[in-house]
Amino acid sequence: METLAGGVYAAVPASLFPSLSKDSVVPSALALVGRIKRVWQRARKNLQRQSDIYKVAADRKRIPAPAYTVGQRVWLSSKTLPLRVESKKLAPRSSLRKPAPWSHQPATHHPPESWMEVRFRQSGNCWLLDGGVEVNMFNYRQMANNLVSASLEALIQHMDYYPDKPYAFNFLLTSRLFLQPYDLMTRVCHLCLEQGSGDDLLDQIRLYEEAKKLVQLMTEWTEAFPHDFSDERMMRSLRDITHHVAGVDEYSLRDIQQATDRLMKRKSTFAVLNSMLAEHPASPEPEERSGILSMCDDPIIFAQQLTHIEIDRMSLIGPEEFTQSFAVKNPQCQGSNLEAYVRWFNRLSSLVATEICMPTKKKHRDGVVKFFIDVAQQCLDIGNFNSLMAIIAGMNMNCISKLKKTWNKDNTHRFKTLENLDPSYNFKNYRTALHDATEMSNTADSTQEKIVIPFFCLLMKDIFFLDESCASRLPNGHINLEKLEDITKPISQFLLWRQAKCPFHRDETILQFLITMPIITEDDLTE
């Protein structure tokens, strides 16, 4: 105890918590504890009041959460899912086209189990309610955060707000395995245009945003898949969209008109190329057929003209034709540019065999064989693997291989160097050469070095194997997006190869000879 002027005070520390305070006979100590308790109550009341004010401001656009029951389907925003990603800014914002209004997370930031009445558990890549009911329409792979499966309706809704460009291209390419392009356009446009009547300011803003997204999607569609708009129904839908956009935003109207103009120019270009590369009926063969050496005896020029035809053929092929050829009951796969390209490969092989067999003298045949070996070597140097394999196939026909006297040691040795690209080990040597040519093309500066023309029949075989190797739909009805991504990769690479420009001079005489010269079938040559 200490005695000071004005009173007696005990040396007892004051406590903020009543449960820890001890009774004291000193009046001044009890008064101090009472004052501290009143200060604490006022501070706590103010803190609670401010918290309520902040909550009202935060919840001004929210609605109360519904009463959940076990086994009920619910949709979650990705904000409530513990996605393991490097950056939350790059993570998907929502597992739906529009987040559910109750999908916000309370200020406590606890896991969903502690603040939702329905208990959740994680199974694989999905969030499940107790009882095993799936709760999200999209299925992401953990760690990498890759979308691996989803329902068809969810994927179509995902197109509503124009997602990233790779997703738009992949879905537009592979969706035709499940529905026709016109049906997809109808459903996407319906989702974009059902956003309101435009009577108030909010509807006007919403229509403006939807118009911009729709124009972006149509621009991507017309640039990547122009052959889809050969269907008059697609063109009619495009005109309807243009009419709708005209009343919403003049800048979007300008963009979609420019996209339509580019589409019409590409369609006219395709028409010109088709007429140039059309297979004309074979004219009667003259009694004395002029050999190929009388027209062109330079293998470099001949290989360059073959490259012109290959690039022209490739430019006509749309990426959608690959997937349409696998689609069930698809009438568009008949008479496609894919079949025309395969027929060109067979024609070049038969032309090589015909030109070798036509000369009656061994000396002339020997010169033709040397010429085509040199042409094949030039095609290999250019990166024209399709013409190279066609020439090798033509020289491996029975009617050519049985010409023992024509195949002297020099021709046999030179041809063996080309035959290293044989089909052994699943075309291992060819795939290595193609990979090296692709790597060189990616870093090349000159136009000639950028040319890569793959062996097209093998490319088609690889894509067909990817389609047949696994199902397009999972047991739960979701679309197998991992399979569709595997199919898209070689097609996307083909589109990069297709962009190459041929820098060589065009010789119309040689080109017409290659396209129109009558050929003799292998059976007739054997006889």
Your description of this structure?
With 527 residues, the protein is mainly alpha-helical. It folds into four domains: 2-58, no CATH class; 78-148, no CATH class; 157-273, no CATH class; 284-526, Son of Sevenless (SoS) protein, Chain S, domain 2. It contains 20 helices and eight strands. It has helices at 27-58, 112-115, 152-158, 165-174, 181-193, 201-224, 232-246, 250-276, 299-316, 320-324, 337-357, 362-382, 385-395, 398-401, 409-418, 424-443, 456-469, 481-498, 508-516, 522-526, and strands at residues 2-4, 7-9, 120-123, 126-129, 133-134, 138-141, 146-150, 479-480. Strands 3-4-5 form a three-stranded antiparallel β-sheet, with no helix packed on it. It has a three-stranded antiparallel β-sheet with strand order 6-7-8.
Keywords:
mainly alpha; 4 domains; about 55% helix; about 5% strand; 20 helices
Unreliable parts: 1-18, 94-136, 329-334
The level 1 CATH classification of the largest domain is: Mainly Alpha
Q: Which range does the strand content fall in?
A: 5-15%
Say which CATH homologous superfamily of the largest domain is assigned: Ras guanine-nucleotide exchange factors catalytic domain
Taken in chain order, the helices and strands follow as EEHHEEEEEHHHHHHHHHHHHHHHEHHH
Number of strand elements: 8
SS content category: mainly alpha
Biggest pleated sheet: 3 strands, antiparallel
For the record, give the distance between the C-alpha atoms at the N and C termini, rounded to a whole number. Answer: 131 Å
Identify the CATH architecture of the largest domain. Answer: Orthogonal Bundle
Number of helices: 20
Radius of gyration (CA) equals 36 Å
- For the largest beta sheet, what order do the strands appear in spatially? 3-4-5
Instruction: State the assembly state of the protein chains.
Output: single chain
CATH structural fold name of the largest domain = Son of Sevenless (SoS) protein, Chain S, domain 2
- Mean pLDDT across the residues is 75
Integer tally of domains: 4
**Which word captures the global form?**
elongated
| Helical residue percent band | 40-55%
